[in-house]
Amino acid sequence: MLSTIAAAAGLFVATNIDDIVVLTVLFAVAARGTSRLRGWQIVAGQYLGLVTLIAVSFLAALGLTIVPDEWVGLLGLIPLAIGVLALVRTLRGQDDDDEAESALKAVGLLGVAGITIANGGDNIAIYTPVFRTMSTTDALVTIVVFLVLLALWCLLARAIGTNEKVTEALEKVEHWLVPVVFIGLGVFILVESGTLAHIASLL
After folding, report:
1. CA dist list (Å): 88 to 32, 118, 143, 184
2. Which of 62, 94, 140, 196 has a 20 to 30 A CA-CA distance from 54?
3. Contact, 73 vs 190, CB < 8 A?
4. pLDDT digits 0-9 by tens, 69-94
5. How far apart are CA 106 and CA 21, in angstroms?
6. Which residue, 108, 110, 102, is CA-closest to 85?
7. What is the per-residue pLDDT for 71?
8. How far from 126 is each of 49, 56, 82, 158, 178, CA to CA, in Å?
9. Could you give the CA distance from residue 90 to residue 162 in angstroms, rounded to a whole number?
């Protein structure tokens, strides 16, 4: 049991370390109150996204492929679109009085879940063979560990994102930080998943 818990913890950290950056940015923006995004939406969206990734991994472990691997990367268009929209607004020179029109205002619970799923291609690729070789009991223990650690992940990101020094720094770079983080994440997903290469091969 302890070995299963330790392995699950290591697996979670390895596949979700990059989420800390995105979560921190989301919590920081939510803390400033400059968008409609709320803390509970970030947490609920993360859980919805993780549960979806686990379910897809289970189905894949059973040999049921819902979406071909080369097309999963298209989910990277979600954070990419958010980042581009934020960049356009920044380049138009909108000031703080127009923050209600921020690109992040549309990122509610489902938006966060979409970003989590989009950034979870590596999760599916790693979870699938793991679940395929596990017993039902070990799989259930692993899932419980994932869910518990996600709560700690959110608490850590919230602690960083709502830190006074962090929020003060964010006020100076928020207009550029959001586009950079989300555009970078979207491009990374599209490239790492092989989706761009697959599209290029079809042209």
Report:
1. 21, 22, 40, 15
2. 196
3. yes
4. 566 667 677 778 877 877 777 677 65
5. 19
6. 102
7. 63
8. 16, 12, 27, 27, 28
9. 23
Residue with tokens 């958010």: 82
Helical ranges in 33-163 per DSSP H: 39-61, 69-72, 77-91, 109-118, 121-133, 136-161
Answer whether 1's CB lies under 8 Å from 69's CB.
no
Residue type (1 letter), 67: V
Report residues of the chain scoring pLDDT below 70: 32-35, 64-73, 75, 90, 93-107, 121, 166-175, 177-178, 193, 198
One-letter amino acid for residue 96 of the chain: D
Amino acid at 82: I
For residues 45 and 113, is the Cβ–Cβ distance under 8 A? Answer: yes
